[in-house]
Amino acid sequence: MASLDMNAEGGPRLVPDDVFKIPKLACDAMADSHPYPAYPEHNMKIGFPGELLENWQEVAIAKIGELAKRNRAFQVYLDACVKCGACTDKCHYFLGSGDPKNMPVARQDLLRSVYRRYYTFAGKYFPWLVGARDLTKEVLDEWYAYYHQCSQCRRCSVFCPYGIDTAEISMAAREIMDSVGIGQKYCNEIIGKVKDIGNNLGLQEKGLRATLEGLEEDIEDDTGVSVRIPLDEKGADILLITPSADFFAEPHIEGLLGYAKVFHQAGVSWTISSYASEAANFGMFIGSYENMRDLALRIRKAAEDLGVKRIVFGECGHAWRVAYSFLNTLAGPFDFLDPNYPVPQHILEFTWDEIQKGTLKFDKSRNDHYRLTYHDSCNVARASRMGDKPGGQFEIPRNVIKAVCNNYFEMDRDTIKESTLCCGGGGGLLTDEVMDIRVKGATPRMTALKQVTQDHGVTHMAAICAICKTQFSKVMPKFGYEMDSIVSVHQLVSNAIILDGQETEEDADPVGEAAAAEVS
Amino acid sequence: MNYQLDGQEVPADEEGYITNLSDWSKDLAEVIAKEEGIEMDDERWEVVNFLRDYYDEYQIAPAVRVLIKAIKKTMGPEKGNNKYMYELFPYGPAKQACKIAGLPKPTGCV
User: Fold this and answer.
1) A-chain residue closest to B62, CA distance
2) Predicted TM-score of the model (pTM)
3) Distance CA A467, CA A321 (A)
4) Continuous segment of H or E residues that includes residue A354
5) What is the CATH number of domain B2-35?
């Protein structure tokens, strides 16, 4: 079990609170948190001005108007807030930093105040009465700092009596900034990479093929069964779209092995595409419909070119939001796919269906070295669904975990399901220069985890999002857990599944006993 | 931030990844490692050389799993594991070792 009294990284040990606390206000504590700005080539590659425009104010103000007109939700969110305060203690970044500008209402007001100044009667004539303010360079800088301290997790919107969605405002703010030439390097560089190469990593077909072949060898070494991880195979039934982190990082890659074993055991034909080798769609993080659409169209093209009948998404939080909520609008209609299956389908829906059909066999004791809890990834929890019943996105991952593990415990009810906390690295913040806010944003989750560690001896936390997995593997060591205390749900499936013909450690004994029994 | 090598300035990005991959040399690797607080030794060179060979072949750094498998083959199981890689490169074999090897930083959700 991970010890809570040490820091596995050797750095200063961080101790999560035992109970949830509302922090003392620390005004402007995070004002200097700035992700690296995008280079001109990053911005231009994805359709934005390279550098800050000379007439940026004019362009930004016009953009606010355009967005309010195009997106009625955005306008309603700007108009409807009554400052009731229900959201103030709901943001993990506020809870971790104490900076009042990380209260959702204050974050919204950074943009709302400018909208009021130029688009409302009162703001135009009596700005001082309604908290309206001019769009200055200082305001723009403030936007850059604080709209990059929002992971667009939508927790605050659950508690807002009007349902105001700060994520929508933060996406709009980033789009406005991009449209005047102020982009964020992490997101914009990556979007360009997907357009060039097909995935966030920049992993080309040759490297991808070599990686997948290596993983096939690993499965065979481990189980004695030949399990394929096909690439670009025309005529396969299923196209798997998964985050490229699943080809690269730990524990993500263990999840990919799980998908492969499930597909193998279910007896379906499937393939990965080197052209659309990325589930993540960072176009959403920067609020850019055009970029989000470009990336979604790659998936459509791959599905058409390969002639598949179904599309299944791997474990990736916001990818599933884009897939579940927007894929049909962005890149549909998908009338060329088999209408008997959801378009698209989540890998957990697929696995749960197979479990219910009885096609998968498990030895749950193979996960007995884990005492598990489950972190609901925010975009799956609050912006999508799985299965055909409300709440399926909460139940199906838990059903699968419980089907493959013996020791499962829930965290505090206020921190799971629709109230789940963001990992602290979502929404385009998974970049090391903002590690300070990432760690602060993770502290409420670490408190919830510490509670189940103390109460139930929980050692590991499972998640179904590439960002959550990377964020926690970086952040958990700072709180005394090991970096591998975060696991993929399909890693647990992979550990427990028994493939047909698999050599198991137990095989030797029962066979031996049976033989002995026969002899006697 | 830029590096100084033999009186020459070698350009690097904000995080210390060199901008022109062709600027890399063994001497520069020592300079970058020093900046990272790391003393290069045979084990670390083994990792850095593997990364560079892999990059030559595939234009990307290998997955940590691939790196570990390769190191396991050349240096044995007691060194071919994640924990040992982090002992060699505390900020991660993928990111820190890539920086020293003069390769671009892996991007994305990693």
Assistant:
1) A248
2) 0.95
3) 14
4) helix A347-357
5) 3.30.1420
